[in-house]
Specification:
By secondary structure, this protein is α+β, with helices and mostly antiparallel strands. It is built from one helix and four strands.
């Protein structure tokens, strides 16, 4: 399981586990930034969360760049 590298990522993990009831061991967690995490389930479904100030909220999943670097 992914280990948070920032306080914000840690707080997002705690929020998802305690408030939202996610079984985090069932997801792949990836950092999007020092303030955001991406969760992916075994089917490939993705959801992202970000911490702004003291607020943790769902954010749009970023679109991956193509091989030539274009979005």
């Amino acid at each position: 399981m992914y280990k948070p590298h920032t306080v914000e990522q840690y707080k997002i993990c705690r929020y998802l586990k305690d408030k939202e009831g996610f079984a985090l061991e069932q997801f792949s967690l990836s950092p999007l930034s020092r303030n955001a995490l991406l969760l992916e389930d075994r089917k490939g479904e993705k959801i992202a969360f970000e911490m702004k100030g003291e607020l943790i909220q769902e954010i749009p999943v970023p679109v991956p760049a193509t091989a030539d670097g274009q979005v």
